[in-house]
């Protein structure tokens, strides 16, 4: 079976992980690297790259054309709406869902001086760090993980924000500050690898052995809760769910204004029983509290270059 993947180091590390998990189950695979729109326009801020799911669409197309059997994605990059003939055949057990702060001199978020320059392209990370430290200077930081770390080392920033899972998958052991999920609610599905196949295919059957049920439930809730307000993984929207015991889940979700001064937030323990119903109710509450308007305003502000 052919595994399709993007060519970035992070994508290759994720594909390698799935390849070795499949090899353990006796499934032989070969690899094919696919260039995507999201990889082509690395000089432009992510929100300017056309449409949501730029990293995913080309791989979907190659699969629909029969060129690849299995695609491996960071699940947080998978758009809410998926082609009907395609299946998320496996959700792997989640790695760290947290964001981390990397600084040039090892300062923590609390120790950074006023007006320290923080790099991130994510509207969510911008809003959350400004909520915590309104005096910081947040600047755009585009590029894959390697580029972003190089720009930090080049002295263009005092600190940058990244997903811890990305660093772990690259095998880099760096001194970082892990940010708590309460103040820095992660993006829906952060830290999770998804395996995609055609529905009803042999590949679907083979890869479904890798599915981790608890992670599938957690990530499913994260998606439902923000489904009605979502604007992609770069919108100022966080959604994080985790089991607190075998029967209950902690659901946290929020939308922020770009400057972090306004927020719509839910924070609730729900039962595993009927979890989808609870998640849909919470999604309606997010909308009723004005979450949609907050996202739309942030997206408008950014595209008008009001920053
Ligand atoms: N949007 C890019 C992206 N997609 C997935 C990851 C990291 C791995 C993950 O969250 O699963 C990253 C990098 C980052 O956010 O720093």
UniProtKB/TrEMBL annotation:
<comment type="similarity">
    <text>Belongs to the HMBS family.</text>
</comment>
<dbReference type="Pfam" id="PF03900">
    <property type="entry name" value="Porphobil_deamC"/>
</dbReference>
<dbReference type="GO" id="GO:0005737">
    <property type="term" value="C:cytoplasm"/>
</dbReference>
<dbReference type="InterPro" id="IPR000860">
    <property type="entry name" value="HemC"/>
</dbReference>
<dbReference type="GO" id="GO:0004418">
    <property type="term" value="F:hydroxymethylbilane synthase activity"/>
</dbReference>
<dbReference type="InterPro" id="IPR022417">
    <property type="entry name" value="Porphobilin_deaminase_N"/>
</dbReference>
<keyword id="KW-0808">Transferase</keyword>
<comment type="function">
    <text>Tetrapolymerization of the monopyrrole PBG into the hydroxymethylbilane pre-uroporphyrinogen in several discrete steps.</text>
</comment>
<feature type="domain" description="Porphobilinogen deaminase N-terminal">
    <location>
        <begin position="2"/>
        <end position="202"/>
    </location>
</feature>
<protein>
    <recommendedName>
        <fullName>Probable porphobilinogen deaminase</fullName>
        <ecNumber>2.5.1.61</ecNumber>
    </recommendedName>
</protein>
<dbReference type="Pfam" id="PF01379">
    <property type="entry name" value="Porphobil_deam"/>
</dbReference>
<keyword id="KW-0627">Porphyrin biosynthesis</keyword>
<feature type="domain" description="Porphobilinogen deaminase C-terminal">
    <location>
        <begin position="221"/>
        <end position="287"/>
    </location>
</feature>
<dbReference type="InterPro" id="IPR022418">
    <property type="entry name" value="Porphobilinogen_deaminase_C"/>
</dbReference>
<dbReference type="InterPro" id="IPR022419">
    <property type="entry name" value="Porphobilin_deaminase_cofac_BS"/>
</dbReference>
<dbReference type="InterPro" id="IPR036803">
    <property type="entry name" value="Porphobilinogen_deaminase_C_sf"/>
</dbReference>
<dbReference type="GO" id="GO:0006782">
    <property type="term" value="P:protoporphyrinogen IX biosynthetic process"/>
</dbReference>
<feature type="modified residue" description="S-(dipyrrolylmethanemethyl)cysteine">
    <location>
        <position position="233"/>
    </location>
</feature>
């Amino acid at each position: 079976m052919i595994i399709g993947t993007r060519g970035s180091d992070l994508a290759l590390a994720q594909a390698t992980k799935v390849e070795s998990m499949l090899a353990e189950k006796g499934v032989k695979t070969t690899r094919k690297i696919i260039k995507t729109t999201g990889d082509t326009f690395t000089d432009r801020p992510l929100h300017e790259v056309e449409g949501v799911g730029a990293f995913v669409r080309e791989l979907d197309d190659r699969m629909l054309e029969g060129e690849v059997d299995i695609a491996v994605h960071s699940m947080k990059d998978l758009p809410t709406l998926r082609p009907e003939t395609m299946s998320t055949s496996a959700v792997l057990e989640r790695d760290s869902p947290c964001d981390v702060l990397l600084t040039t001199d090892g300062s923590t978020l609390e120790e950074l001086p006023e007006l320290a320059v923080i790099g991130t392209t994510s509207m969510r990370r911008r809003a959350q760090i400004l909520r915590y430290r309104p005096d910081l200077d947040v600047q755009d930081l585009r590029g894959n993980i390697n580029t972003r770390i190089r720009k930090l080392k080049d002295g263009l920033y005092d600190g940058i924000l990244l997903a811890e899972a990305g660093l772990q998958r690259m095998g880099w052991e760096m001194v970082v500050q892990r940010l708590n999920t309460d103040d820095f609610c992660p993006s829906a599905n952060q830290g999770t690898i998804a395996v995609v196949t055609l529905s009803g295919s042999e590949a679907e059957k083979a890869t479904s052995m890798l599915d981790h049920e608890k992670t599938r439930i957690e990530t499913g809730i994260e998606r439902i809760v923000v489904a009605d307000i979502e604007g992609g993984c770069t919108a100022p929207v966080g959604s994080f769910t985790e089991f607190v015991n075998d029967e209950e889940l902690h659901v946290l979700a929020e939308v922020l204004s770009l400057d972090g001064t306004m927020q719509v937030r839910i924070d609730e323990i729900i039962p595993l029983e009927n979890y989808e119903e609870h998640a849909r109710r919470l999604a309606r509450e997010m909308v009723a509290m004005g979450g949609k308007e907050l996202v739309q305003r942030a997206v408008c502000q950014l595209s008008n270059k009001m920053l």
